Each structure stands twice: as C-alpha cells, then as structure tokens.
Amino acid sequence: MPSAPARAALNAFPLTPLRDDRLDEAALVRIVERLAAAGVDAITVLGSTGSGAYLDRAERARVVRLAVDAAGDVPVHAGVSALRTAHALAFAEDAAAAGARGLLLAPQSYQPLTDDDVAHLYADVTAATELPVVVYDNPGTTRFTFSTALYGRVAALPGVVSLKIPGVPADPWAAAERVAEIRTAVPTHVGVGVSGDAFGAAGLIAGCDTWYSVIAGTLPEPAVRITRAVREGRPADALTESERLAPLWDLFARHGSLRVTAAAAEHLGHAAPGCLPRPLLGLGPADRAEVAGVVDRVLDGEPATRP
Amino acid sequence: MPSAPARAALNAFPLTPLRDDRLDEAALVRIVERLAAAGVDAITVLGSTGSGAYLDRAERARVVRLAVDAAGDVPVHAGVSALRTAHALAFAEDAAAAGARGLLLAPQSYQPLTDDDVAHLYADVTAATELPVVVYDNPGTTRFTFSTALYGRVAALPGVVSLKIPGVPADPWAAAERVAEIRTAVPTHVGVGVSGDAFGAAGLIAGCDTWYSVIAGTLPEPAVRITRAVREGRPADALTESERLAPLWDLFARHGSLRVTAAAAEHLGHAAPGCLPRPLLGLGPADRAEVAGVVDRVLDGEPATRP
C-alpha cells in the first residue's frame, strides 16, 4: 500500500439548517461549535452540503459571520459558487469581510460551461480576492467535468491553494497513481483533497492531503478518527473505521449525501424538521427511519463516548 | 401526415442582452419592439435564452417591466425559475407587478430533484400567483426529466395552462402519437407547446398548439412564416422553411442555441459584443464567423424584404 502522507487534514462541511425555510441561526451555531470541539482542522460553510446554491447574498454573508464566530480558532472557509461570475465576486467580498480564511469555488452551471469559461471564472475570482481559493470539482451538482489539463491550468492561477477532487479509484494503487497524476499536473504548493466520503480514507492513504468531508459536518467523531489514523501512520485503522461506516456510504449513494445528512441532523436534534431549502423536501418517512437506524448503530458502536 | 391544429401560436424567447456584464436596457427594448412588429403572438423573457438563471431579482423585475412596455399589445410572459422555491415566488410576485401576462417555471436544480419536490414546487407557485403558469421541461439545463405521469400531475394544478416540451420525434406519425399521448395525460384546457427549434414546424404539425421558439427571439420573420403556414393549413411550406434554416439548427446542436443566438444578435448589431452573462464567454472567433455566414445566408434568402 502507498505510504501515508505527512499531513492529513479534515475539512468538515456542515449543513446550513433552515427552519420554516429561513436560516436557523441557533442551530447553525450549535453545529459549528460541535465541529470545532470535535477537533476538525477546518470548516467549510456554504458548500453543496451547506446549501450555498440556494441562499441569497444576505443569508450567505450571515452564515459566514456566524460560523466564523462559532468556530473559535478553527479556520472557516466559505463556498462562493454562483451561476454568474459577478455574484461569485460579491460573495467572495462578503466572505472576506465576515472573516472567512479561504474560499471554495465550483463551476456551477445552468448553460453548459466550456473550459475557457471555467478558466476565466477562476481567473476573475482569484484576481479579485486575497483569500486562498479551493477549486471545487463536483460534477454531480455542477455538471462540469474537469480534465486533468484544466486542473493544471486553473491550479497555476495565483491564489489557488487546493483542488477538491470527487473521489479516487477503489484500488489503492490506482488511487495513488491518480493522485500522483494530478500532483504532476499542478504546482507543488497546490494541495489535492478528496471528497466523496466513501473515498475519504482511501483518498488520504493514496496521498491526498485533505479530506473535504460531508459526514464530518454532521458526525465529526468518526471522520476525525479516520483522519488521525492516516496522519499517525495507521492506514489499516482508517480503513476499518471507514468500513464500519459503510451503511452510511450506501445511503449516500442511494439518496445523495445532502438528504441523508439532513435526515441524520434532524434525527439527532441538531436541526429542526424540514431543514433543507424548498423545493428539497428531504427523505420520506421510510428512508428517514432507515437513516436514523444506521446513525444510531454507528454512534452506538463508537470507540469513544457519544458526545 | 396528421392534420394541422386549428391554432398554432408563436411564443418568442428574446435574449437579455448585457453590456459590460450589466443589463443593456436600450438593446432589450429594441429587440422586444422588433419581435412585436414582426408579428409574434407572445414573448417570453427570462427563459433559458433570456439568461433568467443568471440575473438577480432587481434585474429580472426590470427586464419584465421594460419588455411589457416595449411589447405593446403582445402579451409578455416571464420566466420565474429559481433553485429555491422562495425565490421563484418572489420573482412571480415581481413579474405580476411588472405586467407579465403569464409565468414560465422550470424545475431548475442544483441537487437532483425528486418528482415530489417538483410537484410541490409547482403547487406552491401556482397557489401564490393569479397568473397562468407554463410548465417548462428543459432537461438539458435543469437536469430534471419529467415523466408523462408527472406532466399529468402538475398539469392538473389550477393555474397551469401549458406544457413546454423539449421536442418531438422526427417521424411525423411518431410525433403526433407523442403529442396525443401527452394530451391524454393532461386536462383538455392545458396546451402543449414544442421547443427545440429544429422541431418547431414538426411539433406544430404534430398537434402542438404553441411553438416556444428561441430563433423567433432573434430572427422572428422565418419563425412567423413557419407558424402561419401551419396555421393556414400549409404544413409542407412550414417544413420547407424549417429545412431552409437547417444550418442554424445544426449550429444550435453543436454549440447550444444561446451561444449561437447571442453571436447572431451581436453580428446583426442587436446586442453589444460580449452580451452574455459571465462566465459565459460566448463563441470563439471561428465559430462566430460561421454563425455570421449562416445568418446572412438565411436572411439573404428570405422571401420577404429584410427588415
């Protein structure tokens, strides 16, 4: 198996809980405080999991401000993706003013985007902000697929510090080869982080420096354990813990991670019922019951005390 | 060949031209005036062609107001699609206040939507507005695919007056069969309109009552001729005219209709260079030259005098 990276960091993606379709500020603060206390290395609000795409400018600025205040010493990054470049620029300005320490930018699309459109988007945003920018490759929601060559083109822009890639091959050697291929295409100072929680442990072991994690935003403890195990040179422990969470990864694959984490947060009382922005209704009763059962079993099986 | 419908209407979708990434009000007014003068039956602003997805609330309200004033007696419909139901409701309220005579609503998505999400979206919007609502099925941009059963479920809502379907089969009998199948699934008062300009003539001949037309928003004359030919019982003339425009349909298929019509409008001086919202750069120089050549040939070959 490939050797573990020197540093493996956990960047947690919390939900932005709503109540009656409005920002539930108290719930957001509690969620962010809980992540900071659990020992995540960074927090990214307003990613896909944070429903950034659904919130207006004022709501987004408020989310960043609340999260920065609640996170204490833990750095908060803010998603600033938008269909229009001008809006991403406005969100970036607001995020900086609210104390964000980094930006997450995806090529969100309505009309399909070309490589040139995307390269200019990143050039425009990085030129306008002093904050480091994470390039967010999430073809499932953006419908844009980065080539490795475009990774290189965008990563060469001043201000780009990391790529958030959408998973790695299941085979450990193939995963390490894929991460190495990306690293060859991008400047050495640019990090490569894995997303797709089922691939978190495998991605870190394959040489990704960061796990951009959905589950860490709602159930941070197992994600912290996985990340620490890799960091401390215990990859087998990381894989065992990830395997223990397989029923969650299965639910993510079936329903999408957002609907599952929203149901989990509602089940645990971290968010009010119906915490997603309409038109997203969330899971139906049977699927919710299944999520609750899986979450309870995962937490009951925890090595540490349930918080 | 199936018999022509008693009434065939042309609903034209104009661009929303920008200049330096801001609304070009004068150009929008000229475009809308030109459509009204050309004899289109209705005008829909802020559809996909009108870049509705990229504009903020104030811009959208302004576009509707300007178009209503410029269109004279021609009714103006307004696209009110949004990722979030609350925003679609706000856009609908603004459109009504600005004098729109109908709304166009697509299930725009970031997270994939379920049938229940979409049905509730339409229920929420139709319940909140007195304006008639056109259900906009555009899987290429929304990534949501309606089943015929969901057409029926949504069309049964009070306030829904028409479905905008994304094309018909190429074979005339298959096209007529598909339109008949949809008509069977929806209440008789709900219209069925075709989009996908290459299918405009075939769709009207197959029994669609309306052509929701991109090309009519930029080059209205040939689209008016096609629609009148069908209305007057001359389906062969409609197909001949549509065939004459085949080089345009080919460009639409290769680049998407938005980038092609934007390049056409810029070539004809109807819009300033770079009229699309960033990050959409529009076509490159070689493709623009090809569009200009096709547009000039189409207009040179017009039976009527070029306006």
TrEMBL record, chains A, B:
Q: Name one GO molecular function term.
A: 4-hydroxy-tetrahydrodipicolinate synthase activity
Look up the signal peptide feature and give its range: none
Task: Locate the residues binding pyruvate.
Answer: 49
Q: What class of enzyme is it?
A: lyase
Residues annotated as the enzyme's active site: 136, 164
PANTHER family (UniProt xref): 4-HYDROXY-2-OXOGLUTARATE ALDOLASE, MITOCHONDRIAL, DIHYDRODIPICOLINATE SYNTHASE
Name of the protein described by the UniProt record: 4-hydroxy-tetrahydrodipicolinate synthase
| UniProt organism field | Micrococcus flavus
